[in-house]
Amino acid sequence: MNYEIKQEEKFRFIEEGQGEPLILLHGLFGELSNFKDQLGYFSRHGYKVVLPLLPLLDLDLLHTSVGGLQKYVHKFIETRDYQDIHLLGNSLGGHVALLHTLKHPERIKSLILTGSSGLFENGMGDSYPKRGDYEYIRRKTELTFYDPAMATKELVDEVYAITSNRLNVVKIIALAKSAIRNNLGEEVSQIQQPTLLIWGNNDTITPPFVGKEFHRLIPHSELHFIDKCGHAPMMEVPGEFNQILEKFLTKLPVSA
């Protein structure tokens, strides 16, 4: 992705286009490149697309949690003074988006969740990242997708590099455990923003029943399933994902 990474204070982010902010939050092993198809499309179609680089491995251990990431996003939004935000999160990023919308709803115009944690997630399954085990990392990366070929060598190498550092592994485990502890089942019914749920029918990490449960609990929500799609629809089926998202956004009233 050949976009300029901007810096303001401690925040690093990409910002492209003009219009209402569409802020995209990546997941635990996510990269900014996860949203390259949304960045290109929506920045050309009337939105200011913003991708903050979440400090998943840069917070001190005490704040390496869903709550710590939410505080970081809140400070980022305040520093940049974004208003009328469409907040989109995948996986752990969705969890952070949910928590932020509950704590600071005033700037959020709509919420978009795809493969979000917050109710239930298989996450690491029955094991945690093993340092130095490339095949383990490759298999775990493949599980993100319906089509294992989506787990390219470049993507597997990125994840492998992250998990080769002992402190990184400790922080990844801390974040995964924090996501499980921070269950929002009793709170998400308080969300009043229009909410879009886009789920892969073949998601094994946050399976389809999780999308259905979010839909049942969040009052003003709509749910879309995509066939032959896993945990990262915005990467695996970007065309269909963008079409669903654009239709949802264009139904919302334009801010004054």
Tally of distinct domains: 1
Give me the number of helical elements: 9
Spatial order of the strands in the main sheet? 1-2-4-3-5-6-7-8
Largest sheet: 8 strands, mixed
CATH class: Alpha Beta
Domain AB hydrolase-1: 22-243
Protein name: Pimeloyl-ACP methyl ester carboxylesterase
Organism: Dinghuibacter silviterrae
Pfam families: Abhydrolase_6
How are the secondary structure elements laid out?
Layout: E1 6-8, E2 11-16, E3 20-25, H1 36-43, E4 47-52, H2 66-80, E5 85-90, H3 92-103, E6 108-114, H4 134-142, H5 153-163, H6 166-181, E7 195-200, H7 208-217, E8 221-226, H8 233-236, H9 238-251
Parallel strand pairs: 3-4, 3-5, 5-6, 6-7, 7-8
Antiparallel strand pairs: 1-2, 2-4
Describe the structure.
InterPro entries: AB_hydrolase_1 (IPR000073), AB_hydrolase_fold (IPR029058), AB_hydrolase_sf (IPR050266). Pfam families: Abhydrolase_6. One of its GO terms (cellular component) is membrane. This is Pimeloyl-ACP methyl ester carboxylesterase. Residues 22-243 form the AB hydrolase-1 domain. With 256 residues, the chain is of the alpha/beta class. It has one domain (6-121, 184-251): Alpha/Beta hydrolase fold, catalytic domain (Rossmann fold, 3-Layer(aba) Sandwich). 39% of the residues lie in helices and 18% in strands. The chain has nine helices and eight strands. An eight-stranded mixed β-sheet has the order 1-2-4-3-5-6-7-8, sandwiched between helices. Strand 3, helix 1 (36-43) and strand 4 (47-52) form a beta-alpha-beta unit. The protein starts with 5 loop residues before the first strand and ends in a 5-residue tail after the last helix. The mean pLDDT is 93.
